[in-house]
Amino acid sequence: MKRDDRSRPEDQSHPENSAQEETESVNRREFLSSATVAGLAAASVGATDQAAAQQVASNESAPGALPPTAVQEAMEAEIPAGYSAEEAREYFVRNPGSDFMVDVIKRLGLDYITTNPGSSFRGFHESIVNYGGNQAPELLTCVHEEQAVAMAHGYYKVTGRPLGVLCHGTVGLQHASMAVYNAWCDRTPMILLAGNHLDATERRAGVEWSHSAQDCVRVVRDYIKWDDTPFSLQHYAESMARAYRIAMTPPMGPVAVVIDGHLQEGEVGDHSPDLLPMTPVQPPVGDEAAIAEAARWLVEADSPVIVADLMAHDQEGVERLVALAEALQAPVVNQFGRMNFPNTHYLAQGAAAVAQADVVLGLELFDTWGVINTLRDRVHRDAVRKARPDARVISIGTNDLFTKSNYQNFQRYYPSDLAIAGDAQATLPILTDAVLSSMLRSRRATNAERESRWRDAHARAREQALDEARYGWNASPVSTSRLYAELWNVVRDRDWALVSDDNMQSRWARRLWPIERHHQYIGRSGGAGLGYGAPAAVGAALAHRAEGRLAVNVQRDGDMMYTPGAFWTAAYHGIPLLTVTHNNQGYHQEFMHLQRMAARRQRGIDGSSWVGNELRNPDIDLARIASAMGVWAEGPITDPDDLGPALERAVEVVDGGEPAFVDVRCQPR
Amino acid sequence: MSVGLGTIRSAGRGVLVISLWALGATVAVTQESDDDVREGRALYDSHQCWQCHGYEGQGSVAGVRIAPTLYPYEAFARLVRHTNLMPAYSPNVLSEEQLRLIYAFVQSILEPPPLEDIPELDFE
Ligand SMILES: Cc1ncc(C[n+]2csc(CCOP(=O)(O)OP(=O)(O)O)c2C)c(N)n1
Ligand SMILES: [Mg+2]
Description:
The structure holds 2 protein chains of 2 kinds. Chain A is of the alpha/beta class.
C-alpha cells in the first residue's frame, strides 16, 4: 500500500481515526484492520491458528497508489499562507517518516508502547501522539527503562501479546538491559525500538553525539533473538514485520529495531514505502515418529511423571496438558514458569513424584538436568541423582532452538533419552492422540487404580499444606502463610489474578490458593534480575484491567527498591493493582548465602550476616514511597490481626480503579 | 500480650513479658525457664537459625519446621552438626552449651492454634 493514498470519504468515520484531524493521512489507517492485528498474537501458538491466518489473508487488500509526483504537487499546494516555498521547506515537514513508522506499528497491533522519553526518537514520539492519536498503541510513561521492559514482560504473560518498548538507543538501552535479559530467559517476546542518529554529519553537537552509537543494540544482543538497523523506511517496514514474527515464534524472545532519527524526522519523499501484510507463523511441532515413540514409552511405563515449566502459552495449553495427564493418569509436577496445570486437579503433585518415575516427560523445562539431579551446596559440589537410576527422560521443547552462547541461562547439559524439538503446547495434541491410540485395554484398566492413588496423594498434600500454614500463625513479623491466607480472604469471591510469583514466600500461593486458570499465575522473572516485580505486576495488571480482574502483587522489599517508579506509572495511568509487601527488611536470599559461607568457614556469628544485607537502620518506609507516587498506601503492618482489615480497605480502593499498597513486615520466608 | 511473637510454653507459675530488641516483639516465658529460653532465643537470633527456620521455628522453603521439637536433644544436635542440606554448625562456632540453650528455646515454642480455630484457613 502506498503512503500517499487519498481517502475515500467514508474513511474519516472510521473509529480509529477519531483523534486524527488531518484528512490527508487518515486513509492509511483504514487498512490497519484491528481484526487483522488482534488475530496475530493469538494465532502464533494458540488453537485458533488457522482461523486467524484466514482472517489475515482476507484483510490484505490494498488500494492503488497515486503516482510519486503527487508528493511534490501536494507539497506545493500545502505551503502555509505567508511563506515562500523555500521557507516552507526549511520550517515544515508535511509527511514525516515517523508517521509511516507508526502505521507499521499499528499494523503489527501493538496495544501499548512503554517508554521513557528521549530526543533520539522525538519524531517518532510526536507521530505516536499526534498522528496515531495515542491509541493502539498508547504510550505508557515509565520512569526507568528497566521498568518499561518489565511492564511489557508482565503484559505479555497475561495477554500473549507483545508490546513495544521505546528507548533512547544508548543510555536507554543500557538501563533496559537487565530487564531484557529477564525477558530473554523467560522467553517473552517484545519489540525494542531504539532511537539513534546514524549519520554523523547530521548530529547536533553535544548530547546527540553522546547519545548515538555505531551499533546501539550491541549492549543487549547477547540476549535478544534478532535485531536490525534499517536504512530506509521500506527497510524499517520489512524489519519490523520480520522482528515481530521472530519474536513470536517459539522459543519466543525480545527483538530490537533501531529507528534512525533522520528517517523519523525527514520527509518520506518520492519513494513511498509499502506496508506489508502480516501473517502469523505456525509454531514448530515435534517430529511425528518421535512422538509415537514417546507415546509408547509413556503408555508402557509403570509410573510416568510429567514435569512442565515454560510450557502453556494460554488456557488452551493448560487444557491440553490436562488431557494428556488424564489419558495416562500420570502426575504433573508444575514448576510454575507458566501456569501449566490446575493445582486443584488430583494429578497435580509435588516435585517428589519424580523420584519414583520410570519415565519422565519434560515439557519446556528451563532446567532438565536439575529435574533429574541436584548439585549439593557443599565444599565439594557433588551431583546427586534425584530420579531413579533406570528412569528414562523424554524432553519436548524449544531449548535446542536457541542459538546464543554467552549467557549461561540454558543450564547444565542433559542428554535425555528421547529429545524432541518443538513447541510443547503445539505438540501435545499429537502426543495425546498417539497415547490414546496406542493404549491397549489392559493398560487402560490400570488407570482406575492409578487415579485413586493420586487422588489420595493429592488430598494428603492439601491437608498437610493447611496444617503447616498454622505454624507461626500469630507471629510478628507476619508469617508468609498468614499473608497469603489473609489475602485469599479478600480475593476469593472475585475474579482475581496473582501478578507476582511466590517462590520467596515459601510457595504459599500455590500451596493454598486454588489456581486453575492460565491468567491467574504469571510465573517468574526468568533471569532472576531484581527490579522485575513491581513493573511486571503493573504491566500484568494493565492487561487484567481490560478484563475487569483484581490483580494482586506480593512485592518483596529489596526488589521494589530497584524500580519503585512503577507505582507512579500505575497511579498515572489508572491501573488498578493491589500490592502487598513481603517486607523482610533485607536481601534475605543473600543473608542465607552469607550464613552458609560463615558456617562453612566456622566463623562470623553475632549478626555478621546483616552486613551488606539488611535494609534497616533507617528502616525503609515502603508505604510512604508508594504514597509519594500517588498510590493509596498503608503500613507497615506488624500485628497479623491488623492485616485483614487493611486489605479490605485496600481492595475497596482497587475496586475504584486505582492502585493500592499495603506494607507488611513479614517473616523472612 | 497482643502480638505474640512466640506463644511460648508457660508451664510454670508466673509469666514474664520480655521485649526482644531484635524483633521488636514481646514474648511470654515462664519464670523458671526464663534465662535459658531467653538466652536460647538470643543465640537462635545471632546464629541466624531464623533465616531458614523462621523466627518461630515454623519452617520455610529454605529450612524445615523445627518447632515444636519432636526429638531429644541428642538427635537435634546431630541434625545441626551433621547435615545434608543445611550449613553444618561445628562446635567451634556453636558450643554444646549454646546449642542446648537453643534447644531449650525451640522446645518452649508451643503448638499453633488448631485448624478449626483459624477461619482464614477454611478454604472450602
Ligand atoms: C539485579 C540483581 N542484583 C542482585 C541480585 C542478587 N540477589 C538475589 S536475591 C536478592 C535479595 C532480594 O531481596 P528481596 O527482593 O527483598 O527478596 P528476599 O530475598 O529478601 O525475600 C539479591 C540481592 C539479583 N538477583 N539481581
Ligand atoms: Mg527482602
